[in-house]
Amino acid sequence: MSKKIAILGGGESGIGTAILAKKNGYEIFLSDKGKIKNKYKEVLEHIEIDWEEEKHSEARIFDADVVMKSPGIPDSAPLIKQLREREIPLISEIEFASWFTETPVIGITGSNGKTTVTSLVQHVLKEANIDSGMGGNIGNSFAKMVAEEDHDWFVLEISSFQLDGIEKFRPHIAILTNITPDHLDRYEYKLENYIASKFRIAENQTEDDYFIYDADDSNITEWLKKNPVRSQKLPFSLERKIENGAYIENENMVVNINNTQFTMPTSELALQGKHNAKNAMAAATVSQLLRIRKQTIRESMSNFQGVEHRLEKVLKINNVQYINDSKATNVNATFYALESMDSETVWIVGGVDKGNVYDDLLPLVNEKVKAIVCLGVDNEKIKASFGNIVENMVETTSMVDAVEAAYKLAEKGDNVLLSPACASFDLFENYEDRGRQFKEAVRNL
């Protein structure tokens, strides 16, 4: 008798789960409370999956042996509560995918930097001719890759929402880039709930696995004191020398693992800035674990192109640099962006606030920001936070208007920085859509 799986959500992870479940003989029902995109409907029709949209047929969902919940659905949703009451197993797509592969995983999570680290690790592996597939929270879903691709390694970016639904998922190498308040609206506004969620990446690891983390992050180090992990710890730090792990000394990145040392001048790293030195240390630690040639690591770290929508230089117009940092969906990411600005900046900010506290940004805004362009449906909190320290503040509700306003405010030698510190769903489909609209508006100036 085939097992029944109900899939909630018809996006990337839902479709990936359907493809993998079909391949493994499951009886499948996919249900989405919203509308399913046409490109996904075509896949469902092609592989002959039973699906519905704009409703949940509860009787059919409750009939399943296991339910895969897409990461976008909060635990507080009534249907999820009912599933828990009925004790129907509820898992995430990465958990489901892990049941059908023995391939080792490099899993990367954290509030910021995870896309950059994931892309950088994949770049180094590719340059070293190691066969690896990259996906998870970016690109293809893990389930789709397990169903359709064969690799020696999987490199996965993993969000806290994906980790919330794991039971046995175990990456051989886990990276935790940092933890700063984010998505607190999904964690009862309790930071400790969010931290616990991030640490699930290491909960199934054994003594044979590795845990790479930021030793300068007090949220991480305090948690580790009370909640030790079983895996081998490899910290990285900008502040102190690390015996087994990575650190910066005399403007060199040093990675020490079991008495094998790799060094590289930080000036040669393709990505500059303190936060990127940390991203490079995390990726270099993985490279050392996999015994990649030092020359290959050096070349990869110096020729990496960076990630779209993350401090991406778009154009210079009238000697004003336009920078797309649409991926900055929280305060901490914007902190890094502002910190790296080396001239007067017109800052485009705003969107859906996830419980943001802007206090940390005040000194940087005071020092670097000459004008603020608000881009959101509701900008009251931004105006209240920065109104006293920035004289020029403009409100806009479209990207074209925001870019035109910034163009008028910027002078020779300035930067125009889109770094919203907020989610994008009030005016855009997602942060990629927001970033692409920014680039288009800049090119049309």
From TrEMBL:
It catalyses: UDP-N-acetyl-alpha-D-muramoyl-L-alanine + D-glutamate + ATP = UDP-N-acetyl-alpha-D-muramoyl-L-alanyl-D-glutamate + ADP + phosphate + H(+). Keywords: ATP-binding, Cell cycle, Cell division, Cell shape, Cell wall biogenesis/degradation, Cytoplasm, Ligase, Nucleotide-binding, Peptidoglycan synthesis. Its EC number is 6.3.2.9. GO terms for biological process: cell division; cell wall organization; peptidoglycan biosynthetic process; regulation of cell shape. Its main location: cytoplasm. It holds the Pfam family Mur_ligase_C. Pathway: Cell wall biogenesis; peptidoglycan biosynthesis. Residues 309-422 form the Mur ligase C-terminal domain. GO terms for cellular component: cytoplasm. It is found in: Cytoplasm. Residues 108-286 form the Mur ligase central domain. It is an enzyme of class 6 (ligase). ATP binds at residues 110-116. GO terms for molecular function: ATP binding; UDP-N-acetylmuramoylalanine-D-glutamate ligase activity. HAMAP family: MurD (MF_00639). Cell wall formation. Catalyzes the addition of glutamate to the nucleotide precursor UDP-N-acetylmuramoyl-L-alanine (UMA). Belongs to the MurCDEF family. This is UDP-N-acetylmuramoylalanine--D-glutamate ligase. It comes from Christiangramia aestuarii. The gene is murD.
